[in-house]
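Lab notebook, bench 4. The sequencing result for the construct came back, and we need a structural model before the next group meeting so we can plan mutations. Quick request posted to the team channel:

Model the 3D structure of this chain.
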Amino acid sequence: MPEHAHHDLPHHDTYEHLTSLLDASHIDYRLIDHEPEGSTEAVCALRGHPAHEAAKCIVLRVKVDRRTTRHVLAVVPGDRRVDLDAVRALFDARYVGFSDPVTAERLARAVPGTVLPFSFDPDLELVADPDVVAQPKMYFNAARLDRSLLISGADYERLAKPRIERIATPAPA
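Done. Here's the predicted structure in token form:
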């Protein structure tokens, strides 16, 4: 396999990439098959757990200055929203917004609704809210609409090594 090959995996290999990484790391995880679904609320219902146990993963475009744009994969509990102002403050940026679907899919190597809380692209910086890694149970779509993964927040943190920052808005009352 050529040296650079792992950098241009087509996104449908992301699922295999993730499961082999988990297996190699001897991490306990469970795969859950379900109807194809990418929206957080609906998929939580299919998987049968409260939304706060889901990891919601959003690709953001962070304009640091006129010349520099960074891409951030923000991971927050499923019942919360990403606090764009908090992300902007973290990166001392001029602007933070959602990435366009094409860029998000290219960097996350997954279609919208199946983005993993892992980054397999050096240009995608991973930031997770502390409430995500604190979860004993953490569910997310496994780069597929019809399959999800359950892992502990602690194992997730150990393996994905996200930057941990408060980036979620409080749950709506």
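The longest strand covers residues 55-63.
Will bring this to the meeting.
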